[in-house]
Structure formats: C-alpha cells, structure tokens
Amino acid sequence: MTAQRLDGKAVAAELRQEIKQETEVLTQKGVRPGLGVILVGDDPASRSYVSAKERACEEAGILSREIKMPASSTKEEILAKVAALNAAEDIHGILVQLPLPDSSIEEEVLQTILPEKDVDGFHPVNVGRMMLGLPAYLPCTPHGILHLLKRSGIEVKGKHVVVVGRSNIVGRPLANLLSQKSDLGNATVTVCHTGTPDIGAFTREADVVVAAVGRPEVITADMVKEGAVIVDVGVNRVEDASRPRGFRLVGDCEYGPMLEKVSAITPVPGGVGPMTITMLLYNTLESARRTLG
Ligand code: NAP
Predict the structure, then answer these.
(1) CATH topology assigned to domain 30-114
(2) Is 103 near ligand 1, meaning CB less than 6 Å away?
C-alpha cells in the first residue's frame, strides 16, 4: 500500500483562494479584514512564523499590521499594545506570537485580547464556547486539521481517533472537537500523553492517529495499524550538516516506513502547517464579517 499524501499546501491554497474572494467582497462593502500581530523579541522561529502569516495576509488581501517589540519589553508595555489593537477599528483579529520571552505573562496577555478579536482562539471565552459547542473562534491548528481531513475525503465520524499530546493549543482542543456531535467530529477519541504507560497499545488500535508531541519520529511505524490515517502535527528541527541551514524538519512520526503501511499521511513540512495559517485568515475574515452584523 502506498499512502495518500494529505497535501496541506494544496488544500490550504484552495481555501485561501476562497478567503481572498470573500475578502474582496467585504472590502468592496467598506470593511477590509485586518490582522494585528505582536512579536516580542527576535526568536528566529517566531520571526519566520510571523513573516509567513504576514505574507499569507497580503496574498489574501487582508491588512496586516506588525508590532515589533524588544525582548526587554515589560508586561505593561505589551498590554498597552494589545489594548491599542483592541481599540483599532481597522483591526479585526489580534495575534500575539508565542512563546513570549517571559512565558509567565502569556496567560495575562492572551486574556487581554478582546474575545471577539481573539482569532487564535486561545481566550478562555472562546475555549469555553468551543467546549460547549457554541459559535467561537476555533484554535487554528485543530480547526485546520479537521478541514484538511474533510477536504481530503477522510471521514472521522464513527472512527477511533488517538490523539497523542494534550497541549492547550493542539491536542486538547482537537480531542474536544473530534468528539463533538458535529459535521467535522463524531469520532471516538482517546488522548495519550506522558502519563500513558504504553502509547503503542492505543495507537495500534486507532483508525486515525494524530501526533502532537514535539519529539522527532517518536511514533514509529510499528505503533500504527495497517491502513490507518496519520496526521503529523510535530515540527522538529534535526541537525543535518548536509542542509544549507544545518538542520532539516521532521515530524513526530516515522514518515518513510509509514508510507508503505498506512492509507494516508500528512508530510512535514507541507501537511498541517499551511492549514494552521489558513485558519488564522479564516478567523480574521469571520471577525470582519461580524462587524457588518
Ligand atoms: P507541547 O505544548 O509541548 O505539548 C506536547 C504534548 O505532547 C504534551 O501534552 C506532552 O505531554 C506530550 N508529550 C511530550 N512528549 C511525549 C512523549 N514522549 N510521549 C507522549 N506524549 C508526549 O506542544 P504543542 O504546542 O502541542 O506542539 C506539538 C508539536 O506540534 C510541536 O512539534 C510543535 O512545533 C508542533 N506544532 C505544529 C503546528 C503546525 O501548524 N504545524 C502548530 C502547533 C504546534 P504532557 O502533557 O504529559 O507533558
């Protein structure tokens, strides 16, 4: 069996085209969607994520306003920038790039973003609404995964999905969304983490395995069943002197050996990543649309 490659790039391109068209319509009505991005410090990975988000906004016709702040910025200075974006009429979505140099202030900073501009879906109001199945901004990576599966013709309804990882931004919300009685959910979900003694015992039973761990190739081919669907969220840098940048990106799953065993798999890069940014555009467009009532 050679696995279907779940091409996040292609699905994201299709979705971004739709977002661009709707952005044009909204802009003609006088509301151009706008995203405000706060970047504190100069972590190279964060910088490259922010540039990718800005590029994506530009291509979709969405206004993007970046606020760069030095790593030494105080909590008060960061909160003041959030407050300014909360008040800005041309900004419909706000994103604070994580991690912040001082991670102990992240919660407070995120909770200062107005829930109606919280396009990352991290504010407790949106998290609570999501849990209750009420309309909310859904966190971009889990939401992107659900759309990637759906648009690739993979139904999760009635399937056993094992999610490895329980972070607040990926594993936990994804497990919640997958288990909801909804078009994109209705699956039976198991969540594994560092407290699970034998993860393979669960993943081998799964129709769909989602790995959101952040450890290179920790889910090996012998841990999944023949014909399973694999969603690899992990993005890990592995030293590689043969590459110009001195590293290559690998996922949490053993991609090569899995290709001959599973029915479908997301590559890293080019799988989940492009979908995450796309859902950020989607939420920003949605927020702008709501201002029209
Ligand atoms: P995180 O906050 O570090 O959470 C990792 C989760 O995996 C935790 O729940 C942890 O368990 C669990 N875990 C860690 N090592 C484990 C092991 N050996 N066995 C079983 N469980 C283990 O990470 P995250 O933010 O969810 O991100 C996960 C990965 O996805 C990272 O590589 C990240 O870069 C990537 N990511 C990609 C995208 C994208 O768009 N492609 C978006 C977000 C994240 P405990 O809770 O028990 O500690």
Answers:
(1) Rossmann fold (3.40.50)
(2) no
